[in-house]
Specification:
Layout (H helix, E strand, L loop, with lengths): L1 E6 L7 E9 L4 E10 L4 E7 L22 E7 L15 E10 L6 E6 L6 E6 L2 E6 L9 E4 L10 E9 L5 E8 L6 E5 L5 E3 L8 E8 L5 E8 L9 E8 L6 E9 L5 E5 L3 E5 L2 E7 L4 E6 L5 E7 L12 E4 L2 E4 L3 E22 L5 E8 L9 E2 L7 E26 L5 E6 L7 E4 L8 E3 L1 E6 L1 E2 L15 H7 L17 E2 L30 H6 L17 E10 L4 E2 L4 E7 L6 E4 L1 E7 L5 E10 L11 E8 L4 E8 L5 E3 L1 E10 L1 H6 L4 E11 L5 E5 L3 E3 L1 E2 L9 H6 L1 E3 L6 E5 L5 E7 L5 E5 L6 E2 L6 E9 L2 E9 L2
Parallel strand pairs: 24-32, 25-33, 36-47, 37-49
Antiparallel strand pairs: 1-2, 2-6, 3-5, 3-7, 3-8, 4-6, 7-10, 8-9, 11-12, 13-14, 13-15, 15-16, 17-18, 18-21, 19-20, 19-22, 22-23, 24-26, 26-29, 26-30, 26-31, 27-29, 28-29, 30-33, 34-35, 36-38, 38-45, 39-44, 40-43, 40-46, 41-45, 42-43, 46-47, 46-48, 50-51, 51-54, 52-53, 52-55, 55-56
Length: 788
């Protein structure tokens, strides 16, 4: 048996690869040897491209958690040890590939080979019995010479930005923004002894990380990342509510609402009360004492509230007061808060102003307490700023024990925070008057609004509007799991949810809001909510997160210009990127195609995604398209689901359209199409700059070049039929523009603009194929049978 090393080409960037291959690998049951190299020159990164019979733990490498300082041991036993004939591999079979980082760039050559101090041995099946052979009987030959210098183009790999974020109260994430090079990128770090180890960029403990980035071409970048401990106080968000007892002015109830953590919460009160709850806990308290509570979520993150009291409940229950009622609501919920006046004899006048934060509460309407109050008692000009003024005179005066003056109705926005309805003396001083005098001593009570998180099914990006952009977060988070939502439904209403404590990179969007169906798994089924609730809105949406664009030439997105025929449905190519400006590190795109409904038959227009460089529709590639004929707009979104960016250019789908019959006869200027509102993202959710030029399509009343012309097929000949090694084309005097060989599912195999030489078929599997032939006179389709 022979085991030998071979270098995979010359040095690539800062790394090189060495393949370990074999000859004479016959009936082998076990194999053990040690590979050595100069640790001052090379540092092992990983063992890759393993043969099917081996596993990562057969080879010592940083990826398997082993410290490798100049040597790596290979130990393998055939799992089938009983009556085992042994494993046989063809000659020149690759066992695995070692990937090294070049540490000393001044060295031009180095060597790699077997350790003389650790003899290699193997066990083979010799006519039914096992025999062990030591290294002196293995013709391993000499060590391999590795070339470390070469004239290669410089790397385009570039680290654009390096950020960190808090994963939870204890851990953090590293968020690199990378451009150039070749995807996918692999990340390593150096552990304490200098050995390289694969690095996951999420849920890391605080510390310093030497970050090494390796792309698919083995070019590398290095950076030092300092991941600091999350700021103090990161944990569940807490809201406190005090409820006074009308019958006992010296007692009250304090309620704590918790959100923003993970799972259930443990409430540990200073009053020797301990409770585990989904999101709230309350205790009865005396109004003259102070209390504290510690709240811990299921990940151990905690938050503390001290000096809780109910002092506002102290006093005579018969005191004159103005009270705004509080509420506990979910984000997006509509609610009303009462404004009451109590314990006034001979009330003749009352005035005040109420202020709130319009970023947390959206004002909707008023409800009058009785028929003595109407719109003339209010100044509503500043409700958009969060302010309302009220004034009312009573003639004659009235006696009040408790009276609701009016109710203020709001929709809670998505702040998931505490909002307050408070009296504002600066906007309008609070005054309460009786028939004889103005009351000097009275109490005012603000309303505290606790807003808990809620999901609106289909609004994955929390914009307050269900549209095609909501597909992008689903693709970014596809496959993630979290908490199941109780009583989940796709109905369009706010539903209380517990946060998962995980978010999309570069976004604070918790993954719980993307799980539209509430089953605890983000999957393609969550797109059903987008379809069901399409274009539905509510007022409380958060503004979209604006992320910096990746700095590069704007990527073109356009409808390829072609002549429009007046009597048939046309197929136009929608393309992303060009050969001169290809897409790099792309994950998904959303855009709208705008047309004139007076020119285009709105019942014969649509977008059809095709198998392309961006992806093929399936569980790991999602798409959505909806046509709005009233607005003359097709909304489209395409996104991957495998967390892998791709690069390329060309067609990503087809736009099918037909002209209005009457309008087609009058159109001389052509048909205008425009792509608007483009959002192109990478797998980190960051936007990529785009350029979407307007397209004007000329109109022809003759046969269009995108119309299939059956009569042309009789003039064009493909031969031989069936074909074996090559295929010839006879155009029959027609002028060829382009030919495309494709499978019956539409997948393109080869294309060209001339037929100077035959098409080679040796690499194609036997079967039936289609040839699409585009010429000046139209388009013909021909079948071709390939046999071998």
């Amino acid at each position: 048996m022979n085991i030998f090393f071979s270098q995979n080409g010359s040095l690539k960037g800062d790394t090189l690869e060495v393949t370990v291959s074999t000859k004479g690998f016959v009936n082998i049951i076990a194999l053990e040897y040690t590979t050595e190299w100069d640790p001052q020159v090379l540092q092992l990164i990983d063992a890759v491209q393993l043969n099917r019979v081996f596993f990562p733990n057969n080879i010592e490498s940083p990826a398997s958690g082993i410290d490798t300082q100049g040597s790596s041991q290979f130990v393998w036993n055939d799992p089938a040890l009983i009556d085992d004939p042994g494993e046989t591999l063809p000659d020149d079979t690759r066992l695995y590939t070692l990937r090294f980082l070049v540490k000393n760039k001044n060295i031009t050559r180095t060597r790699i080979g077997f350790s003389p101090e650790k003899p290699a041995q193997f066990v083979y099946n010799n006519r039914g019995s096992s025999e062990s052979v030591k290294s002196e009987n293995i013709p391993v030959g000499v060590s391999a010479n590795l070339v470390l210098k070469g004239n290669l183009p410089s790397s385009t790999l570039k680290l654009e930005q390096l950020c960190t974020s808090s994963a939870d109260c204890k851990l953090g994430n590293i968020i690199p923004t990378i451009s150039g090079g070749a995807t996918p990128y692999v990340f390593f770090t150096r552990i304490s002894n200098g050995t390289l180890a694969r690095l996951r960029l999420t849920n890391l403990v605080p510390g310093k990380y030497p970050l090494i980035i390796v792309d698919a071409k083995n070019d590398t970048l290095e950076a030092l990342v300092s991941l600091t401990a999350p700021a103090a106080g990161i944990g569940p968000s807490l809201q406190s509510l005090v409820f006074c007892s009308p019958s006992r002015p010296d007692s009250a109830v304090i309620r704590i609402n918790a959100f923003g953590g993970v799972g259930q919460y443990a409430f540990d009160w200073s009053a020797d009360t301990y409770e585990i709850s989904r999101n709230s806990s309350q205790i009865a308290v005396a109004s003259n004492r102070l209390y504290s509570v510690t709240v811990t979520d299921s990940k151990g993150c905690e938050a503390i509230l001290n000096n809780l009291s109910a002092q506002e409940c102290i006093g005579n229950s018969s005191a004159v007061s103005l009270v705004i009622s509080g509420a506990s609501v979910v984000s997006g919920e509509v609610f009303c808060s009462k404004v009451d006046i109590t314990n006034v004899q001979d009330l003749s006048a009352v005035q005040f102003a109420i202020r709130w934060n319009p970023e947390k509460l959206s004002y909707l309407t008023l409800k009058y307490g009785d028929d003595q109050i109407d719109n003339s008692n209010f100044n509503l000009t500043d409700t958009r700023l969060g302010l309302i003024r009220f004034a009312k005179n009573y003639t004659p005066g009235i006696n009040v024990t408790r009276k609701t003056l009016f109710e203020l109705c709001f929709q809670a926005k998505l702040s998931e925070d505490t909002a307050y309805l408070a009296f504002d003396n600066q906007a309008l001083p609070v005054e309460i008057s009786t028939g004889v005098e103005s009351i000097e001593k009275f109490s005012t009570y603000s309303g505290e609004i606790s807003i808990s998180p809620a999901i609106w099914p289909g609004d994955s990006d929390r914009s307050g509007h269900v549209d095609h952009f909501d597909l992008l977060p689903i693709g970014l988070a596809l496959g993630n799991r979290g908490l199941v939502r109780n009583e989940a439904t796709l109905d369009w209403r706010p539903q209380r949810t517990e946060l998962w404590g995980k978010s999309i990179l570069n976004s604070s969007l918790d993954l719980a809001f993307i799980d539209a169906d509430g089953n605890g798994l983000i999957a393609s089924s969550d797109t059903l909510a987008i379809q069901q609730n399409w274009q539905r809105k509510y007022q409380a949406g958060k503004p979209p997160l604006v992320l910096p664009e990746i700095r590069q030439d704007p990527l073109p997105l356009f409808v390829r210009k072609d002549t429009i025929k007046t009597r048939a449905v046309q197929s136009l190519s929608v393309e992303l990127g060009t050969a001169g400006i290809p897409g790099s590190s792309v994950y998904g795109v959303a855009f709208s195609i705008v047309y004139n409904p007076a020119e285009v038959d709105e019942n014969k227009i649509g977008f059809v995604p095709t198998a392309s460089w961006l992806g093929t529709k399936g569980e790991q590639f999602l798409s959505i398209q909806r046509n709005d004929p009233l607005r003359g707009r097709i909304d489209v979104a395409l996104v991957r689901g495998d967390q892998q960016d791709v690069s390329g250019f060309g067609r990503i789908g087809n736009l099918l359209l037909s002209l209005e019959p009457l309008e087609a006869q009058r159109l001389q200027r052509g048909v205008n199409l425009e792509i608007r509102d483009v959002k192109l993202i990478n797998k980190a959710g960051q936007t990529i700059a785009t350029n979407a030029p307007q397209t004007v399509l000329p109109v022809s009343r003759t046969v269009g070049i995108n119309e299939m012309a059956p009569m042309l097929s009789a003039r064009i000949q493909l031969y031989p039929q069936p074909a074996d090694q090559r295929l010839q084309l006879d155009m029959g005097g027609l002028h060829l523009r382009e030919w495309t060989l494709m499978r019956f599912n539409g997948e393109s195999i080869a294309r060209g603009s001339s037929f100077d030489r035959p098409i080679q078929l040796e690499q194609l599997p036997a079967g039936m194929y289609l040839m699409r032939i585009h010429c000046d006179e139209g388009i013909a389709m021909k079948k071709c049978l390939v046999i071998h």
